[in-house]
Design brief:
Number of helices: 3
CATH architecture: Roll
CATH superfamily: Hotdog Thioesterase
Shape: globular
Helix content: 10-25%
Number of strands: 6
Structural class: alpha+beta
Strand content: 25-35%
Length: 163
């Protein structure tokens, strides 16, 4: 699976920059699998604020639930490595959003991990999917259009899409 170059991925905003702490290391001496997902999710959450989905959104009676993931590991990350998260929005439906979340090894200037995700808008009272607000729809549509204009094609798993 071909990934964007460092120069290409750097056109996307950086979220959740951090160095890998010793506590995230597994028995193999590199970043434990669960922390790849955790750091990527942290960066995705930060990016969603810009499209009208605050981190404390559930206080408004709504929330975001993950529906599907496809995870690809390209390079190991080790204690002390500097990383950031980059998010590319692919599309949305009335109740779902499709994104690519890249975990970038800043020191080696490469994509280390890719999380492709579909997440849903949830009404917390009914615990069921519900349509995105008009504000979120507009902002997400603008971001999708902006990302569609990037000069590199996203590599999708082909196993998921918004419905």
């Amino acid at each position: 699976m071909k990934q964007p170059t460092y120069d290409e991925i750097s056109a996307l905003p950086s979220y959740a920059p951090q160095s890998i702490p010793v506590a995230f290391e597994d028995l193999n001496g590199h970043l434990n699998i669960r922390h790849y997902l955790g750091i990527a999710s942290e960066g995705l959450d930060e990016s969603l604020v810009e499209v009208g989905i605050p981190k404390d959104w559930r206080n408004t009676g709504r929330a975001v639930f993950s529906a599907e993931h496809h995870l690809t590991y390209f390079h190991e990350l080790r204690t002390g490595d500097r990383v950031s998260v980059r998010v590319r929005m692919i599309g949305r439906s009335d109740k779902a959003i499709h994104v690519l979340v890249y975990l970038v090894d800043e020191g080696r200037e490469r994509v280390a991990y890719l999380m492709e995700e579909i997440f849903l808008c949830i009404d917390m009272e009914q615990r069921r999917t519900t349509p995105w607000s008009d504000e979120v729809k507009e902002k997400v549509d603008a971001r999708v259009a902006e990302h569609r204009d990037l000069p590199w094609e996203p590599q999708l798993s082909g196993s998921m899409k918004v419905r």
